[in-house]
Design goal:
Two copies of one chain form a homodimer. By secondary structure, chain A is an alpha/beta fold. Chain A has two domains: 8-121 and 317-443, Alpha-Beta Barrel (nicotinate phosphoribosyltransferase), CATH 3.20.140; 135-309, Alpha-Beta Barrel (TIM Barrel). Helix content of chain A is 38%, strand content 18%. Chain A contains 16 helices and 19 strands. The first copy, chain A, has helices spanning 8-19, 48-57, 62-69, 79-86, 116-120, 123-147, 163-175, 184-190, 200-204, 209-220, 233-242, 257-270, 286-294, 306-309, 396-409, 430-443, and strands at 26-33, 43-44, 93-96, 102-103, 110-115, 151-154, 180-181, 225-227, 249-252, 277-280, 301-304, 319-328, 331-334, 349-353, 358-362, 377-378, 381-385, 388-389, 426-428. In chain A, strand 14 (349-353) and strand 15 form a beta hairpin. In chain A, helix 6 packs across helix 7 and helix 11 (233-242) runs parallel beside helix 12. The longest helix of chain A is centred in the first third of the chain and has 25 residues, at 123-147. The radius of gyration of chain A is 26 Å and the shape is globular. At the A-B interface, helix 1, helix 3, helix 6, helix 7 and helix 8 of A face helix 1, helix 3, helix 6, helix 7 and helix 8 of B.
């Protein structure tokens, strides 16, 4: 399953490791972000469940192997490479921070330790899975933060980058703090609360707006949300109010939300419906919600689509997967990249979380302690060992709770929607720095 | 299959149509973009093949139906709705512009005509499929245009919004004009040329850069592309050049491409390798490529990842799916939305393409003729009729060719990477305008 869902060069490299007699070497790769996206002071890690599912089920069918054999790039590949694909199983280790954990630039979100081929091939899938869901979970937390106590629902599948991305966006948005999603499959698969009542087409499908509302009320009762802007928002609000209870309330999807929300609130109140709520939707993002929340508008909930499901102001995450160690015949070689602006730190790492800062240390370091003696939390934990799942993966509800608790522990400044300076304190341990220097010395100036 | 991969409100509305006795009414929905994204003067339509596959295979399993029955939103839903889901088949019609067709704002990319429920439920999936692939195909065409004859390869799966989005991005980028993709599954599934040789981890995995290059040359022969920036680009170029033939050439992934490409070209030429090529990668986009191409740099090919697979400068498309007609008992009602800034035009439409402009007319209009008597091309064609595929879908190669031919016929100004004013001429026919006025008159001022 999914064997070919990777960049071709992962497979040519895998073939090359066999050719070079390196296929049995044990590689350690780390997945992390080089730098946080614009206006972000933290990231919420998400996507681990899909990464694990992928690693445990990664296979190559005979049709897929035949396809590779037919490519020019594999004309000279050793036969044992194709045999290895046919019996491919991930037999290595995966360490990861639990979903919902706050992470910063440079901190490994997951670590893969496995024979070179097994560690190399998954790179592409792992990056796409963890990168995308972390982007959306982070974006969701920003929206929820801006909404200052009002509910935020994820509505973006239609604008997601493919239908499947929409399902995963619903999942990640829930982990990031949304109360649910409009994506029904995300509800079915992951047990996430699902929301949604009716679109403009519902109103258009009836001879009159009033009849459309009446039918919706009959169908949904207290869950009915009347979309009131198809023809004229104020008229629509009056019609909705005229129906009386039961209803959840109304939804505004266009126009000036400042004026309309106040006017609609008055109409509902005057109709004796002070408990009827107002939801706002329509091209919202955290910056607009921040403004609306500051105005103390009578809006009870926000539905956010495009901006959330595509993380539109930061649609890509600089997430990378780097070789940091290679063990061959009992000897470990530490590796790092020194190219301009793309330097990496060698050696397998651990992230030690203190109350007010993080230390990125070597995986084998003794966990340091906070000044009060509390040991730092080591964020990376074993999930797969020798190809077997060793830790039960928490569901989305636990991941969501972890994210909320992590956000509460962050300094308030980090919750800003804009980049703060200085950023949250993340340091490298002395041991890691020493290792980096030793590698650099062995490289610089030496004809390799 | 995929029944729940939709917004919940599509399903509540479907239930409501049964409740209201409207389930047998025949609806016509049109999918189009409200306005072109920033800096775009056209769109390349893509994603039809996936849309068709979805419509023909859309089903609900008994587990999925049981899930819906358990939701509060369906507590009052009529039993016949669940029966209808259990035997769901798309029995309607799909008209569409062929993949690779250039379209403009307001022009239907596809039209769905079916019983209300069958036309409503697919909205979310169709928007996500056609919207995303059209974004990427369009972005690809911009990159290819900027590259001015140099090859462009899609390398973005790792940054795509989920692994599956990466596969579809590879597909759409090929339709838009890329010569291929790094996504192996896109190659296997769609027959797209695949590219890729080795990453930095390959270089790091060997004791020396030279040994890494030598092994790659042995594996790939004339397809070998040496990634020369792991330690020092100039040194890397010398080592690659020292190996002599066979090789495709080298890849630059960081640093100042202007200086480095010239220096590397000299090194290759001096080594007697004038036929060795240079590929540039690393956070490229059409604007950077335009600059590089203007400098007449010795770069033969570009690999573009993040910016292409996420359409980063325009990561979302304002694509919508609007009810335009509803037929009940032989009477057709034309529908439109008049809410602020979100007006739509009523009635099923056809797009008539003239040599220098388009006319959006009513579906039943007689195709108008160009001044020389040539009939305009009607872009929307039947693909599914009564639930059966009636037109063989062209493969990606045909779609790519269609895109290239369409781009050639566009006025050169439209190929600008920036918005032109006036935009390409697209008019509504008199018949459509009359229909809109008749609807508006019947609505305005009338208590609906």
């Amino acid at each position: 399953m999914n064997g070919l869902l990777t960049d071709l060069y992962q497979l040519t490299m895998a073939a090359g490791y066999f050719q070079a007699g390196k296929a049995r070497e044990i590689a350690t790769f780390e997945l992390f972000v080089r730098r946080l996206p614009p206006n972000r002071n933290y990231l919420i890690a998400a996507g681990l469940a899909q990464a694990v599912d992928y690693l445990l089920n990664l296979r190559f069918t005979s049709e897929e192997i035949a396809y590779l054999r037919g490519l020019a790039q594999f004309a000279r590949a050793p036969a044992e490479f194709f045999d290895a694909l046919a019996r491919f199983r991930f037999t290595g280790d995966l360490l990861a921070v639990p979903e919902g954990t706050i992470v910063f630039a440079g901190e490994p979100i997951l670590t893969v330790r496995a024979p070179l081929m097994e560690a190399q091939i998954p790179e592409t899938y792992l990056l796409a899975t963890v990168g995308f869901q972390s982007l959306v979970a982070t974006k969701a937390s920003r929206l929820v933060n801006a909404a200052a106590g009002r509910a935020v629902v994820e509505f973006g599948t239609r604008r997601a980058h493919s239908p499947e991305a929409g399902v995963l966006a619903g999942r990640a948005a829930y982990i990031g703090g949304c109360i649910g999603t409009s994506n029904t499959l995300a509800g079915f698969r992951y047990g996430i609360p699902v929301f949604g009542t009716a679109a403009h087409s519902w109103v258009l499908a009836f001879e009159s707006e009033l009849e459309a509302f009446r039918q919706l009320q009959q169908l949904l009762g207290p869950a009915a949300v009347f979309l009131i802007d198809t023809y004229d928002t104020i008229e629509g609000a009056r019609k909705a109010a005229s129906l009386g209870r039961p209803m959840w309330g109304v939804r505004l999807d266009s126009g000036n939300l400042v004026e309309l929300s106040r006017a609609v609130r008055r109409i509902l109140d005057e109709a004796g419906l002070p408990d009827a709520k107002i939801m706002a939707t329509g091209d919202l993002n955290e910056y607009k919600i921040l403004e609306l929340a500051k105005e103390r508008l009578p809006i009870d909930a926000f539905g956010v689509g495009t901006e959330l499901a595509t993380s539109a102001d930061a649609p890509a995450l600089g997430v990378v997967y780097k070789l940091v160690e290679l063990r061959s015949g009992g000897v470990t070689r530490y590796t790092a990249k020194f190219s301009q602006d793309k330097e990496t730190m060698p050696g397998a790492k651990q992230v030690f979380r203190f109350p007010d800062h993080d230390v990125i240390g070597r995986a084998g370091e003794r966990p340091a302690c906070a000044p009060d003696g509390t040991p730092a939390e080591a964020l990376l934990r074993p999930v797969i060992l020798d190809g077997e799942l060793v830790a039960e993966l928490p569901g989305v509800a636990s991941a969501r709770q972890r994210a909320q608790e992590s956000l509460k522990r962050l300094p308030t400044a980090c919750l800003s929607l804009f980049t703060i300076d200085p950023p949250y304190r993340v340091e490298y341990s002395e041991e890691i720095r020493k290792l980096q220097e030793s590698i650099r010395d062995s490289r610089v100036g030496a004809p390799l």
